[in-house]
Write a structure and sequence with these properties.
Elements lengths: L3 H6 L7 H14 L3 H23 L6 H18 L6
Helix pairs in contact: 2-3, 3-4
Length: 86
């Protein structure tokens, strides 16, 4: 199942990275738990690279593919933030 932040960002990944960062920043501010805030910060730091990789593809990914990729990136950011799965 996709993370709600990934679902929010997937259809608008063609927008400027600053706009995407503003959305992630809103998630950071609204989150009460510090580990989750760290996850969102790490995720936001990786968005520019994700956009670059999407742009480099010969065929643009579907919104569903982007959502899956963003959910995976959130999971990896969670690991880096010390959040245990489950």
């Amino acid at each position: 199942m996709a993370h709600p932040l990934a679902s929010e960002l997937a259809p608008i990944m063609d927008r400027e990275v600053d706009e995407l960062h503003q959305i992630v920043a809103r998630w950071v501010v609204q989150e009460e738990r510090e580990p989750e805030r760290n996850r969102y910060r790490l995720f936001g730091a990786d968005l520019r690279e994700v956009k670059r990789r999407i742009a480099a593809r010969g065929v643009p990914p579907t919104s569903e593919e982007v959502e899956i990729a963003l959910t995976a990136l959130l999971a990896l950011a969670g690991r880096r933030a010390g959040i245990r799965p489950g």
